Amino acid sequence: MYKLIGYYDYDNHLNKVGKLKVEENVVLRLRDNAYVYFIEDSKDYQEYLKWVAEGNTPEPADE
Amino acid sequence: MALIGTINAPNDFAFKNRIMNGAFAISQRGTSFTPTDLAYGLDRWHFRLDGTPGTLAVTQAALAAAELPPFSYAMRFNQSVTASGRTYLRVGQHIEGLEAFSGQQVVVSFYAKCASGTVAIPTLRLDRYFGTGGSPSQADNMGFSSGGSPTITTTWTRYTAIGNVTSTSGKTYGTNNNSSLLVGIDFPTSGTFDVYVTGFQVEIGSVATPFEFRPYGTELTLCQRYYSKSYNHDVVPGTATQVGMEVCGFQGASGLGGAYGNVKFPVKMRTTPGTINIWDGAGTTNTHSYTYGGAGSAQAIANGGSWWGSGTPFNTSHSGFFMRPTGSQPSAWNYVHYTADAEL
User: Structure pTM?
Assistant: First the structure.
C-alpha cells in the first residue's frame, strides 16, 4: 500500500498559500513509512510500478 | 618464473571474496527478521519467497568462541512452522557488475550446519541479472556443475560448489549500471528446518581458498555503498534515541521558514537511494527533533517537529539529501535519524 504526499506552499511567515499540491516524484510506502523515489533503477520503484500495474492506486494525500 | 606463478595463482589477493558480509557480522537493519519477499535482512542479503509463510525467522546468531573459530556470527534460517503454497524460498546477494563474471568459472563456498537431522538444499543460485532495460529481462540461473545441492548436517561443514557464468556476449546490459550476479541458497519450500550459515565466499576459479576476513570497518564501508543509517551500528533504525542524529537545519528566528539542512551519507552510495526513512529522536517516523533556547537559556530538546512543505527529503543524491524543517522555536537546531537504501 502506498500514499501520495501532499504539501502546501507557505509564505515566509508559515501561512499556507494556494491549494494542496502533490509530490510528483516520490510516494509514501505505508508498510514502513519509507519515501519511495521514482528512480528507474530502484528496486523499490520497480516494486511500486508493479503494484500499480496490478490495478492498484495509492491513497490520496492528506489535506 | 616463480613470480609469474605467484601473480597468476588464483585468489591470493585481497578482495578475492566477491561477497560482502559473508561472515554476517554487519547488521545495520537489525539482528532479527521476519522475511518478506524482496526485503533485506543482514547487510547485503535479501529474501525471495512466496506462498503463506508459516513461521520463519532469520537472525544474526552469535557463535561461541570455540564453535567455529574464527567466525563470530552466522545467519540462522529457522522455518519452525511450515509454509504453504510456496514455490521458492531464497536468501541471496546481488554482486554488483555482472560483466566481471562473464565467461568465468566461479566457486562458491560456505560453512553450514542444521539444528537436527539433515536439510537437503534444493539448489544454490547463480543467476545473471542484466539490469533495468537489459536483455534478457528475466534472470537466468546458470546452475552448478558440482556441489549445487548440498545436504546440511548437524556438524559444521564447509560446502563447495562450482559453476560457470556463461559469457554475456550477444546479451544487452541495462543502461543504469545495475547488472549483477545473484548468488544464494534456495531452501526447502515446505517442512521445518533450522540452518546456520557463515563464511560465504564467491571467488573466480575452481578451488575454494580460505575465507577472506576483512577488517570490520572495511566490510561496513563496503556495505554502506548500498545501505546507510545515522544510528550507531548496533541500534535498530526507529529506536527511540537521539544518539547519532544528523543536523538538518538551523532556525534563526521564531515563526519563519527557511531552515534548510543537508544530511551527508558516510560514503557515496551506489546510486541515488530509492528509499529514505526519517525518524525523530523518539522513534516517530517522518518528523524531526530540535533543540531550542536562546543565549543564556537552558537548551531543551523536543520531538515531533514539523516541516516546510511535505517533509520529503529532497535534492537526494549519492552523497546525501536536503531537508527543510520549520522551527517552531527561535535558535533551534533541527535533527533527524535516517536510513537510505540503494541496494540492487
Answer: 0.92
